[in-house]
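hi! just following up on the protien thing from before. the input was this:
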Amino acid sequence: MKNTINICLGLLAIGFVSCEPEFENPVNEEGFYDSGSANFSNFVAVGNSLTAGFADNALYITGQQNSYPNILAGQFEFAGGGDFTQPLMNDNLGGLLLNGTQIADNRLVLSVGADGERAPVLLEGNPTTEITNGPTGPFNNMGIPGAKSFHLVAPGYGNAGGILSGTANPYYARIATSSNATVIADAASQSPSFFALWIGNNDILSYATSGGVGVDQTGNVDPTTYGPNDITDPNVFASVYSQEVDALAAGASGGVLINIPDVTSIPYFTTVPAQAIPLDAATAGAVNTQFAQYNNQVLPTLVGAGIITQEEADARMVNFSAGQNFPILTDDDLTDVTQILIAQGLPPETAALLGQLRQANNNDLIVLTASSVLGTQADPNNPLSIIGVAVPLQDQFVLTGVEQSRVSTASAAYNATIQGIASANDLAFVDARAALRQVAQGGVAYNGGVLTSAFATGGAFSLDGVHPTPRGYAYTANVMIDAINAQYNATIPKVEIGNYATITLANN
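and the predicted 3d structure came back as:
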């Protein structure tokens, strides 16, 4: 059986722009810019990778220079803003070294092969950013890639000795004032006159990007027991978030809080179609024959024995047809019938295959990284072992409807906390969820084009499908400027987002 899965990315009109930004609302001869009731002289931004300027699955100099806080700081200069320092990486490769050993990959670039096919690849080269030889602060940009809400208040999160065990963060270890320091204390010690806080994305995102390979910890208020891909309890989030705002706001003229976007708005979850398996009629018929006994005997037997419900049996039916098809997958929210099937005489390999098997549906989101495995052979020596057809797509490649509901529930709770604290403290509030939805649903027009969430071609997202491009960060900064101007009666100018770059092309 010959199956070739071709995920079309439509890379037709990629913008490669690198020039000095211009103002979207330039000053006129009569006007001038004003800070209103805000004081931008010492702006400090705190958060995770979205604050650091992470892009293309790495942190590198160009990304940092185009981070939303650095863009904001540049605009704040027109109304009394001061210097803005960032812990710049040593190069534009993006990799990290720990005692000379590389522990983080280089960034992604778009490679165009001799046959014209385009795909993200790792940029070649030897990175030079050594964690144990970090720059000296303090730094106005305290964005720590990978940080969750509770990490910002966790002593030891910057202890280099805990990096390999997962108790510390290499990006914070580069710049922490001591091995027992906390991110929020290091930020607050700078006595910010104005601050930005964007945290909470990773409290759900790591669960989502891993295809729900984690635990929803709602009800567990001890984050020291959480795994790396778990969903943070909303009460934990509310508690630490309140502490963080209190620490940053003490003595500040104001600040801006940003909520959590919907993960379904990013191309990591929207690029690979749910119906990604092309089959002709003959192949579809042959595959259906292989699953006939499963559909017509195994499932009815399990229902009759009271092991699964008829509703679950219906969800587990497998049926292929000519055209585009949903792949088969494993779903750990289904009843695991592996041992039962072994007891009934099925071979262990077959029982393991069928244990939590079902076919995908339109409620499932296939993650971007699945494009590298769908349609390939699980066993190079077995041409029939096609992943998605004869071999299930593994759980980490699919965010199911049930898993999406868990993410959505937690996200809604976090966002209620963020908006409530912004209101209670008279801080500017940015609805990033709505702003990103606008990009994903039709796009945002600018002078020169339309910013959309289409992978690689839309201009908004980098090649990791999660983090913005410089152009996407510029749009984010403009949304924040609107909120800041409205809250503090300021007249900070926005930037022309079309003058910021999108993705990087490399022909290696």
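The radius of gyration is 25 Å.
The chain has 15 helices and 18 strands.
cheers
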